[in-house]
User: Fold this.
Amino acid sequence: MAARLGEEFFQGDFLDVARNLIGSTLIWDGCGGTVIETEAYGIENDPACHTAFRPTSRRFFAEHSAGTSYVYLNYGVYWLLNVLVKGAPGCRDGIILLRALDPASGLPAMRLRRAGRKDRELCSGPGKLGVALGLCADDHGRNLVASETRFFLPAESPLAVVTDVRVGISRATEFPWRFLVDGHAGVSVPQGKAASTSRPSPSRLP
Assistant:
């Protein structure tokens, strides 16, 4: 097995890390796949980032190291997986949302959790990804650079990455801080389609 992504990987500029995570492999308790879509949130000057309006998020970010998981319940139903980026001199800190994976391991478990879905739809959105991996409250604050069962592996080969605006938010919607594999059928929202995509309702997976 290739060397895991270490803490230093998550100590760069948050936009660079969000882009460089594309093509890496997330392993999550026996399940996982290739990261094909991420979304970046800046700790400074980003009104859409949780740290801009949630004191508990600011405290969590201050108290945890780069590469720590930041997991929260969206719409009161879906657990979403993020990772902290911080600590590099001269670089901007942030929080990276994992929006989509191309499933590759632990498929029987993910198919069971996402019954009736095609494989490319198992993790084709942040809420879907959370369900497929069995994400829960206990996953908040996990050290993803030291864990034996939850970690990232580096990309084996470069992928064509494009950028687009973020989706599912109401603040700073113009920031082009979403990174995705060009033309991949498993992303949550294809490039160029975000402007016509409405905010997902609580009854539907984002």
Notes: The mean pLDDT is 93. Helices lie at 14-20, 55-63, 107-113, 126-133. The chain has one domain: 7-196.
